[in-house]
Amino acid sequence: MKRLENKVVFITGGSSGIGKASALAAANEGAIVVIADLEETNHAKTINEIIKTGAKCLFVPIDVSDVNSVKKAIFITAEKFGRLDVAFNNAGIAYSYTSIHETPEDVWNKQLAVNLTGQFYCVKYELQQFLKQGGGVIVNMASLGSLKAIEGLVAYTAAKHGVLGITKSIALEYASKNIRANAICPYYIETNMISTAPGELRKEWTERTPMKRMGNPEEIAKAFIYLASDDSSYCNGIEITLDGGVMA
Ligand SMILES: NC(=O)c1ccc[n+]([C@@H]2O[C@H](COP(=O)([O-])OP(=O)(O)OC[C@H]3O[C@@H](n4cnc5c(N)ncnc54)[C@H](O)[C@@H]3O)[C@@H](O)[C@H]2O)c1
């Protein structure tokens, strides 16, 4: 028996990076996969790769910072498949490094809008669907920046700390409704998000990691599958840290 057989799995930011690797892993575990991402992303390539696994798959456009877009994407998913079993709230953005006193207000506002408020919008409407159908599982994408400060990324760090707050609040308030919520906290992972960082910085991140390498999206996808499936049936309100030993 595959671990997500016939489960409807909704993944924001599912067109690339960690979201894409998780979508493919879910497809290989028997899931029906919904890729929810910005319209302009290269989702067709991801959808084709998922279809090749034999899984059912759907793309729904979403901008997680726009509440109406979030409501619509979740509504379309539930209408099309009759339910929503697992939601991976993974969409996120990074920004270039600045000191706190030099961080532009518009950077702060955009970071919070996508990385924190976007998570709130998603979980709010996912929970409404879960309550209607009698349960569900949420996995939220946090970061090592949810557990410690990352120099030069005040807005990202603040938003990602908030993601753990949302996750724990769900765990506390909805445990009796057959709903679980957990989070994933990766350190640097080889995706588009960090591919444009200067070579010197990437070298510094690698050297700071006891394992002397960055993670890859497939390693994060394995943690997602664990939290999404019944393998983690007694986990609620926790975070899994994948950091090559940095927090040690
Ligand atoms: N790569 C890393 O080092 C790292 C480390 C820790 C946490 N994370 C987190 O992992 C998540 C995935 O990032 P990734 O590394 O795979 O990067 P990525 O850039 O490959 O993927 C991010 C995805 O989110 C989508 N997205 C961005 N803004 C959106 C919006 N407003 N609405 C809907 N979708 C939107 C993008 O289109 C893209 O598909 C992010 O939340 C990120 O903060 C990444």
Number of structural domains: 1
* CATH uppermost class: Alpha Beta
Total helix count? 8
Main beta sheet strand tally, sense and closure: 7 strands, parallel
Strand content: 15-25%
Helix content: 40-55%
Radius of gyration: 17 Å
Ordered list of secondary-structure elements with their pairings:
Layout: E1 8-12, H1 17-28, E2 32-37, H2 43-52, E3 57-61, H3 67-81, E4 86-89, H4 105-133, E5 136-141, H5 154-174, E6 179-186, H6 192-195, H7 199-208, H8 217-228, E7 239-242
Parallel strand pairs: 1-2, 1-4, 2-3, 4-5, 5-6, 6-7
Bound molecules: nicotinamide-adenine-dinucleotide.
The site of nicotinamide-adenine-dinucleotide has 29 residues, from α1, α4 and α6.
Structure description:
This protein has 248 residues and is of the alpha/beta class. The protein has a single domain (8-242), classed as NAD(P)-binding Rossmann-like Domain (Rossmann fold), CATH 3.40.50. The protein has eight helices and seven strands; from the N terminus they run βαβαβαβαβαβαααβ. A seven-stranded parallel beta sheet has the order 3-2-1-4-5-6-7, sandwiched between helices. The chain is globular, with a radius of gyration of 17 Å. 44% of the residues are buried. The model has no long low-confidence stretch (mean pLDDT 97). The structure holds nicotinamide-adenine-dinucleotide. Nicotinamide-adenine-dinucleotide (NAD) binds at residues 12-13, 15-19, 37-38, 41, 62-65, 90-93, 114, 118, 141, 143, 186, 188-189, 191-194. Nicotinamide-adenine-dinucleotide binds next to helix 1, helix 4 and helix 6.
